[in-house]
TrEMBL record:
Species of provenance: Streptomyces monticola
Protein's UniProt name: Mycofactocin-coupled SDR family oxidoreductase
Pfam families: adh_short_C2
Highest taxon listed in the record's lineage: Bacteria
PANTHER family the record matches: 3-OXOACYL-[ACYL-CARRIER-PROTEIN] REDUCTASE, SHORT-CHAIN DEHYDROGENASES/REDUCTASES FAMILY MEMBER
Annotated family: Belongs to the short-chain dehydrogenases/reductases (SDR) family.
Keyword annotations from UniProtKB, A to Z: NAD, Oxidoreductase
InterPro entries to which the protein is assigned, alphabetical: NAD(P)-bd_dom_sf, SDR_fam, SDR_subfam_1
Keyword NAD: yes
Length: 282
C-alpha cells in the first residue's frame, strides 16, 4: 500500500471499465483522482457508453478507499473542456502527477459509416493529445504520463483497410500513431524529469469488447452470436489460454508506471497481452 501516496492522477474515460479500474487501484495505493468522462452515448458506437451514474459509482469506489476525487463531464475531443476539467481538479486537489488518457471507443463492423473512422481517431488519438497537452503545464519533476494503447499498436498493417470496418481502421491508426507520440514526447520531457510510457493490452473484459457488434464481426456465420461463440476465437489470439485480460491486470501495470518504482522508466511500451504479440512472431 502507498505506492503512489500523495500523488494526484487525472484519468479520462473514468466512468467504468479500464478507467474506473485505474482510478480505484491508484486510490488504493494512495492517490487522489481527477476523473473525467463524457457520460453520453456516441451515435457511431453501438454499445452504450458510461453515464453520469457510472461516474458517480467510480467516485463512490474511490472515496471508499479514503482518497479524494473530483469528477467532471467533458468530451476529450474538446481541448478547452478537458483543460477546464483538469484546471478545476488541480485547483481543488493541489497538484498533478500522473496523466492517464484512457478514453476510447471501438465502433466495429464492416457496415459502419465513415464517421466511425473519424470519431474514433478524434477520440482515441485526438483525445489523448488534448488530455496530455492540457495537463503538461501542471506537471513537475517526477510526473508520469501513461498512454493506454493496444496490442494492435504493435502489429503491422498501418494504413490497411480492415475487414472489421472503418471504426477498427480508425482504432488501429490511432494506436499505431500513439506509439510514435510516446517515443517522441518521452524524449522531449525527459530533461524535466518527466516520463512517458504506454501500456498495450490484448482484449480486455469491458463493454468495448463484450457487445453484440463485436460478436457479429467475429462470427458473421451466426445470426445471433453470443459471448460463448467468440471465446474460442479470443482465446486463440494469446499464447496463454485466456480469452482476454481483466481491467485490473492493466491497472497493475499502470500503478507501476505511476509510482516512483519506475522513476527511470520512460519510452517503454509495456505489453499486457498474454503473449499475443510474441505468438505472431513480432
Amino acid at each position: 500500500m502507498g505506492r503512489v501516496a500523495g500523488k494526484v492522477a487525472v484519468i479520462t474515460g473514468a466512468g467504468r471499465g479500464q478507467g474506473r479500474s485505474h482510478a480505484v487501484r491508484l486510490a488504493e495505493e494512495g492517490a487522489d483522482i481527477i476523473a473525467i468522462d463524457l457520460c453520453e452515448d456516441i451515435p457511431v458506437v453501438e454499445y452504450p457508453m458510461a453515464g453520469a451514474d457510472d461516474l458517480a459509482e467510480t467516485a463512490r469506489l474511490v472515496e471508499k478507499t479514503g482518497r479524494r476525487i473530483v469528477t467532471r463531464q467533458a468530451d476529450v475531443r474538446d481541448r478547452d473542456a478537458v483543460k477546464a476539467a483538469i484546471d478545476e481538479g488541480v485547483a481543488e486537489l493541489g497538484r498533478l502527477d500522473v496523466v492517464i488518457p484512457n478514453a476510447g471507443i471501438l465502433p466495429i463492423g464492416p457496415t459502419r459509416p465513415i464517421g466511425a473512422f473519424t470519431d474514433t481517431v478524434d477520440i482515441n488519438l485526438g483525445g489523448v493529445i488534448n488530455t496530455v497537452h492540457a495537463a503538461l503545464p501542471h506537471l513537475g519533476e517526477g510526473a508520469s504520463i501513461i498512454v493506454i494503447g493496444s496490442m494492435t499498436a504493435l502489429q503491422p498493417g498501418h494504413g490497411d483497410v480492415s475487414p472489421a470496418g472503418p471504426g477498427f481502421a480508425g482504432y488501429r491508426f490511432a494506436k499505431h500513431t500513439l506509439v510514435e507520440y510516446v517515443n517522441t514526447l518521452s524524449q522531449l520531457v525527459a530533461g524535466a524529469g518527466q516520463r512517458v510510457n504506454a501500456v498495450h493490452p490484448t482484449n480486455v473484459d469491458t463493454h468495448m469488447l463484450l457487445n453484440d457488434a463485436v460478436y457479429k464481426t467475429f462470427r458473421p456465420d451466426l445470426e445471433e452470436p453470443a459471448r460463448e461463440d467468440v471465446d474460442p476465437i479470443f482465446t486463440g489470439i494469446q499464447s496463454m489460454p485466456i480469452p482476454f485480460v481483466n481491467p485490473a491486470d492493466v491497472s497493475h501495470a499502470v500503478v507501476y508506471l505511476a509510482s516512483d518504482e519506475s522513476r527511470y522508466v520512460t519510452g517503454l511500451h509495456l505489453k499486457v497481452d498474454g503473449g499475443a504479440i510474441v505468438k505472431q512472431g513480432l
